[in-house]
Amino acid sequence: MSIYRQEILLRSKDVDLNRRLRTSRLFELLQEASIRHTEELGMGREMTLDRGLLWMIGMQRAEIARMPEYDERIVLKSWPGKTMHVFFPRYYQIETERGELLLRASMLWTLVGSESRKLIFPEQYGVEINGVVTGEEIAMPGAPARLPCTEEKLFRVPYSYVDLNGHMNNTRYFDLAEDCIPSSREGKALRLIQTEYVSEARLGDEMTVRWGKDGEKYFLIGETKKPVFRLRLEYEA
After folding, report:
1. DSSP state for residue 15 in the 8-state scheme
2. N or C: which end of the chain has fewer CB within 10 A?
3. Helix-, strand-, coil-residue percentages of the chain, each rounded to 5
4. Cβ–Cβ under 8 Å, residues 52 and 113
5. Residues of the chain predicted below pLDDT 70
6. Contact status, residue 90 vs residue 104, Cβ threshold 8 Å
7. How many angstroms separate the CA atoms of 60 and 39, rounded?
8. Element (H or E) spanning 208, and its range?
9. Residue 194: CA atoms inside 13 Å, Cβ hemisphere, count?
């Protein structure tokens, strides 16, 4: 059974003003673990990036008991689920050194052609990842439940937000969201995250971001000429 395991000591660059792991940094850590494990499983860049294939994320879900904090040593675990046609499910778990469960997450990954930006069939390129069942998996992510949007702002994708795939990195949508809503900076505990990435935002694209709330539940959507992302954040009431 192939399960990736990594111990991480959280530094100042990893946390926000409340000394909790920054939401965008959380997903960076999860994705970095995905890449390392995929390399260990023999499906590294020579099988994908060097052949014009890009890994992209379609949906994410995280259920949080407690967000890790500054100077805390955590254990990150990750494992692949069973491939579903063109979708590669992956699961994650973060614990304390003593084994206290802090959060669990799931993501749906896909492969697209770097030129066509269209989904590819992995078997045509010999990309194969065997799934694992641990019994610790949470539900796979789905489309975030909508709320009426009452606020709106314009956002232009800056150079610093663009990654090697040539689009706004998915983790930066959390920074954008938390700049719009007050709960995180007020120190409220984040409990649930659901995201759906519908299309790409490129360098310089102007995006209309709209959001609304119901108590401590927030829904955000970003659109250029078409929908780009949908995101739901739920905080402790």
Report:
1. B
2. N
3. 15, 40, 45
4. yes
5. 1
6. no
7. 21
8. strand 206-214
9. 15
Sheet with strand 88-96: strands edge to edge: 4-9, 73-80, 88-96, 101-113, 53-64, 190-197, 227-235, 217-223, 206-214, 151-156
Task: Say if residues 74 and 95 touch (Cβ distance below 8 Å).
Answer: yes
pLDDT of residue 2: 87
pLDDT at residue number 1 = 62
Question: What are the structure tokens assigned to 184, written together?
Answer: 């995180």
- Structure confidence by residue, pLDDT tens digits, 106-134: 999 999 999 999 998 999 989 999 999 99
Domains and CATH numbers, the chain: 4-125 (3.10.129.10), 151-235 (3.10.129.10)
What pLDDT, on a 0 to 100 scale, did the predictor assign at position 237? 86
Q: Which of 8, 192, 189 is nearest to 95 (CA)?
A: 8
